[in-house]
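Subject — a protein and its fold

Tokens — whole-number codes for backbone shape
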Amino acid sequence: MTLRVLSPVAGQVIPLTDVPDPVFAQAMVGPGVAVRPESAAGDAVSPVDGTVVTLHPHAFVVATADGAAVLVHLGIDTVKLKGEGFTLHVVKGESVRAGQAVIGWDPAAVEQGGRSAICPVIALDAGVDSLIEVRGRGPIAAGDLLFTWER
């Protein structure tokens, strides 16, 4: 089975190894890709069709009907913001479509607070070789294909 995972934000695609957090950079959470978002405030969208199984102001997980789960983390160390600057558009347990707004946020405000706004997008419980067609460095729009997950 193949799952298309879309970019939750517009910006520049970078490899996970460039994320300034060792947990993500060393793929301890799982394989994936990161996006350095555009600085304009906007919405992070769901990368897949599914159910919101985890929801925090700074991060969310969407699980597909067949159990694949994708983590989107909005910035690094943003948990310390305690939700300030983030607006939830959905609730835990809600069904979402790929491209649907999940959380509103302002990457520039995150950076002004001295944190990185980079957004890791992680395939949870995935093998290191299960991601194919991974988007290389460069610009990406929210909702564009970020990687394909071979399950």
Notes: The chain has a mean pLDDT of 97. The chain has one domain: 2-150.
